[in-house]
Amino acid sequence: MAKSALLVMDVQQDIVRRYAEDDGYLPRLRRAVDAARASDIPVIHVVVGFRVGHPEISARNKSFGAIASAVPAGERAGFAAGDPGASIHPEVAPDDGGIVVTKKRVSAFAGSDLDMVLRAGGIDSLVLTGIATSGVVLSTVRQAADLDFRLTVLEDGCLDADPEVHRVLTGKVFPRQAEVVTIDEWIASIASAAA
Description:
Helices cover 37% and strands 19% of the residues. It has helices at 13-17, 25-38, 62-70, 114-120, 133-146, 163-173, 183-194, and strands spanning 4-9, 43-48, 99-103, 125-131, 150-159, 179-181. 37% of the residues are buried. α2 packs parallel to α7. Keywords: Hydrolase. Residues 4-184 form the Isochorismatase-like domain.
């Protein structure tokens, strides 16, 4: 029997602030988190984070190099340890004993111990949510599929700055490697499986 985990990826204060136009996102995501917990499905929070001074970031890295170069040496900003903007949004924060995995690049697996945590827990099925659809969700779908995880993407549990990119990814790209459903559909499926 498959054992699932819900991944809540990059739902951090500074990232959420960039997507303030969708004020329904966090309540929707909270419903998914609550449903997972009620069904004893582990909720794993994945965050991007670095050491102070960003020694993990190469200037050659187009995505993260700009973050490192914008932060004065020694400051706790730019998703460095102690940066308040790097904290998980309180609307979906982990409960006591919740698992938080810190990654160093776009994919939830890059520079993290996520695969080890999943294998140790006997998890073979992932339910993906996060910000952004074209970032962490896309990269994680691709890598998780290559690692032979069974995948579900919660379409309205993901956000992207470009609605058309979100539509194409969730409607055309992700279905090749994952089941794509809404949060309500997923909650109904886990409720019926428990009955």
